[in-house]
Amino acid sequence: MMLAPFSWIRPEPWGIHVVPADCWIDPARAVDRALVTHGHADHARGGHGQTFATPETLAIMELRYQTREGAVPVAYGETVDLPGDVKATYVPAGHVLGSAQILLEHAGERVVVTGDYKRRPDPTCPPFEVTPCDVFITEATFGLPVFTHPPIAQEMAKLLDRLAAYPDACVQVGAYALGKAQRVIAELRAAGHVDPIYLHGALEKMCRLYQDFGVELGELRLVADHDKDDMRGAIVLCPPSALNDRWSRRLPDPITAMASGWMRVRQRARQRNVELPLVISDHADWGELTRTIEEVGAQENWITHGREEALLRWCQLYQKRARALALVGYEDEDD
């Protein structure tokens, strides 16, 4: 009996179910067999029987969620044979260290699940690779035309200019612990900032993990090991939750900054009392989302994880078949 096209892959509330292989992509609850795109908490979790992911993502999951049993490393470009005559190939997504798109092949059909991705260069991870397919499952975190991310060099210049203007203070940058903090550090180094960068303790282990995988971050120091005067004229990185916390009192006259794609929305910056919004995102912006759909050239586009309605409407206007998925367990990161 002939199966309907793409009937072997089903979006369910808890994740994307690959039916012949009885496995799930980024499931929001524990399953026997999970294929994980990257280590952020809304895509990765512990408790699975088997977890297929890149070595970097598995290391991140072990650090964050104490997962080790059942780990199956899959390198970029490697193809894994799954039950039910399904093949899975991991392709760089350009989001964070270890992030991958997953190309699924079955019955002559190709499906790409992107997880989260970005198209801008990033010194901390391999770039996104366009992978032709029949069904393209794309995120839509910044799926509104208002979201156009500026060049990161421009945002680094804003940060360094503010630092130079207030040599007796420090600039305290809120940055997500996985991916954003390490990218900001690496981009500062690329911009010529060679001075030590100070870290909140919550960022230390993830930065060390990045360094273990060969990502150069330069000299990093823990805030807890130093006095206020040591940090004058310095950049201090912390989780966004620490920006207005008592912890900040140990810093010398901190100028509050935050690195996030959401800093494009002025109200978000005001809500967090951010003096220096830095529009730095690890997701594709509106123009990159639509360009990627064009370049992939899929028969169908499935849209999830974000502002699905606007991207769905864009697909309709340009005669591209599309549908919005209703997955649970996904939430905005402090991107």
UniProtKB/TrEMBL annotation:
<dbReference type="InterPro" id="IPR036866">
    <property type="entry name" value="RibonucZ/Hydroxyglut_hydro"/>
</dbReference>
<keyword id="KW-0540">Nuclease</keyword>
<feature type="domain" description="Metallo-beta-lactamase">
    <location>
        <begin position="20"/>
        <end position="176"/>
    </location>
</feature>
<dbReference type="Pfam" id="PF00753">
    <property type="entry name" value="Lactamase_B"/>
</dbReference>
<keyword id="KW-0378">Hydrolase</keyword>
<dbReference type="InterPro" id="IPR001279">
    <property type="entry name" value="Metallo-B-lactamas"/>
</dbReference>
<keyword id="KW-0269">Exonuclease</keyword>
<protein>
    <submittedName>
        <fullName>Ligase-associated DNA damage response exonuclease</fullName>
        <ecNumber>3.1.-.-</ecNumber>
    </submittedName>
</protein>
<dbReference type="GO" id="GO:0004521">
    <property type="term" value="F:RNA endonuclease activity"/>
</dbReference>
<dbReference type="InterPro" id="IPR026360">
    <property type="entry name" value="Xnuc_lig_assoc"/>
</dbReference>
<keyword id="KW-0436">Ligase</keyword>
<dbReference type="InterPro" id="IPR050698">
    <property type="entry name" value="MBL"/>
</dbReference>
<dbReference type="GO" id="GO:0004527">
    <property type="term" value="F:exonuclease activity"/>
</dbReference>
<dbReference type="GO" id="GO:0016874">
    <property type="term" value="F:ligase activity"/>
</dbReference>
